[in-house]
Amino acid sequence: MPIAVNISGRSLECPLFMTALMTLLKPELAACLLIEITESAAINHMEMANLHIQKLRKAGFKVCLDDFGAGANSFHYLRGFDVDFVKLDGAFVKAALQHSRDRKLVTAITGFCREVGIASVGEMIEDEARQSALPI
Which domain holds residue 79? Predict the structure, then answer.
């Protein structure tokens, strides 16, 4: 069963934390563990954070931008980080289901993600009707 683990921006920037995390992560966990980057703390050192993300990916772990659209740095992170997934925030998805302008924004984001090889995931998509209404 896959498990997602959240890492804050502050943790992602901390070399000591990342060294300890890489020591704890065993290769056999890569098949079932997803690392999600939250926006609970702003990331100030984008290059260092992306270096740590790439170390995780090189070790076989998938990395996701969590709650995309909920924080002020979503687009900045999408531009600066090479990740495997973008998980659209539930409120963002809900708005897209109700308003055409929001739906067009979700369409543009997921289209960009497809073009650069990033998978999109939408929170709060709980049935086929919601799934077919959005291009996620």
Answer: 3-24+31-133
DSSP, residue by residue, 92-136: HHHHHHH-HHHHHHHHHHHHHHHHHT-EEEETT--SHHHHHHS--
Burial of 90 (0-12, 13-18, 19+ CB in 10 A): middle
Cβ pair 122, 86 in contact under 8 A: no
CB-based burial label for 16 (10 Å; 0-12, 13-18, 19+): exposed
- Each residue of 25-83: pLDDT tens digit? 999 999 999 999 998 888 999 999 999 999 999 999 999 999 998 877 788 999 999 99
Strand order in the sheet with 85-88: 3-7, 33-37, 62-68, 85-88, 119-122
Residue type, 65: L
Q: Map residue 33 onto helix, strand or coil.
A: strand
Burial class of residue 104, CB neighbours in 10 A (0-12, 13-18, 19+):
exposed
Domain count within the chain = 1
